[in-house]
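RETRY 2/3 - previous attempt timed out on the joint model. Re-submitting the same 621-residue input unchanged.
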Amino acid sequence: MTAAGSIARTPDAKPASKSEPNTAPKSVRRRNAGLGLVAWLVGILFVLPVLWMALTSLHSETDAATNPPSLAAPLTLDGYREFFGAGGGPSPWFSLANSLTASVVSTLFVLLLALPAAYALSIRPVRKWTDVLFFFLSTKMLPVVAGLLPIYLFAKNTGMLDNIWLLVILYTSMNLPIAVWMMQSFLAEVPTALIEAAQIDGAKLPVILTRVVAPIAMPGIAATSLICFIFSWNEMLFARVLTGVIAQTAPVFLTGFITSQGLFLAKVCAASLVISLPVLAAGFAAQDKLVQGLSLGAVK
Amino acid sequence: MTDTPTATTTSSGIQAPQTQRPAQPAPSARLRAWVTRAPLLPALVFLIIVTQLPMVATLVISVFDWNALYPEARTFSGLANYGEVLGDPELRKSVFTTILLTVTVVLVSLVLGMLLALLLDRRFKGRGVVRTMLIAPFLLVPVAAALLWKHVLYNPEYGLFNGALHWIFGDGAAQPDWVAEMPLGAVEASLVWQWTPFMMLILLAGLQSRPAEAVEAARIDGASAWQVFRYITLPHLRRYLELGALLGTVYIVQNFDAVFTITSGGLGTANLPYTIYQTFYQGHEYGLASAAGVLVVIGSIVIATLALRVVSSLFNEEARS
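RETRY 2/3 succeeded.
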């Protein structure tokens, strides 16, 4: 590409510089800068509601509920104190702990089940491995709401209602197909020649897995875990129907804010931000692999 | 689908020693096949039990007249529930709402996502920062995002939208009650805000895999920016657009959180997941809810088949390259 491009370019272009902006003509550079400015404006517009939510969470309830909005009102942490139960409301700590348990444990289960499966679908593929892969994917396409009632009845009859382990199992099954797809595509990136070379050198399977496969596939495995964590943390329908008081998760706690309760805007904003924080952190950490995960490994 | 690999491998495992290689003893080949298959089995068995069994149970419940408040009155009713579901104007409306909601959100966020991807597909200062800002809406917990729109933006008295109108037009500014005046639009806008980043990410990946030589060659031949877009970029993006549309459809057809939070299914915004939830959770009509669930599954299979075809064509292309 650089070779073909340089032919058309003016002779005074520096041959040493390979990066696009230096070799591009001035008019293209200027247009890029202009459109870059537009991109900045649109980006700010998109993130504005989130920033506004952050600002509102730091205002007092009376300042949060003015019209027109008060931008320069004094900042306070009262909204956060209220959210964490200072005003006598229900404490969110239980639901945060439940969400953490359900998300982390289900993600560990997913890894435990998906890693061997991905191995059998990429490094040492079984016959018709693409059919198996697509079966995994097809389970993800069926609406969860259709299986909800039998799961509810099962839980009710076995005393599993309001039990966090039921959510752990369901979240594991919810994320397993995505994880198998992602891991398969990450493990497939491990060069076969490398594995064969290790085999010729007499390395046994555990050594190959830990010394050859793991180092190459690790970033992908980490991104997969983060995406599974996000989906489990976000889930609300199962949690709403299958949990009550003891196993309530953070999104279910948030549904308590659906009906207005007088002046409570700062508290809602604080709650929404705190509960979204793990997802924001995990999402930004997995940013580079986010597309591959969300498109089920179809886009790299 | 699952039976296929097992069935073929087993049958060939039995036939192979008899017809082709009589020297090879059958048990060892079969054993080896099972050893390769073993790592796959836990995941497969787990997934079939947790996701497929409930679907079968739904199918069974759907042919019973079963209201949880009158458990003794449970009787086999054949396809009566399906007749009732298809004849119920409220359920028919929720089918229509689901289609309208899904199509609007997917199309609008696809177009916006494409514009954003085209904007970001160039070098400028702070490109990474802009990308991060654009992804932020997608990384809010869905319920939190819906609460943000419902209370912080839409609230007729102190929401940001009406506050901004007040700022711009002064005291006489219109102060609409957004959710009451355009309930479905209110739900759609919040979903478009959350899903545009998703579309942008997929299309940006598509743009970056576009062959640079073709674009360069077209530019040298004097093609305008529009011609490059129309004849090179768009055809290349077609598959990525399809993928974004179909994955978006799969997720948004199932949307429950936004409808539940912003309107609680009121004002004509109840989509199928919400209606099914309500039929069984509040109405206790187990048979009816299951019949509706089966119909949703049938609809989803149509979408899923299309989606799987697109994913598989991208997948095969990746494998070949």
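The first helix of chain B runs from residue 3 to 19. Closing ticket.
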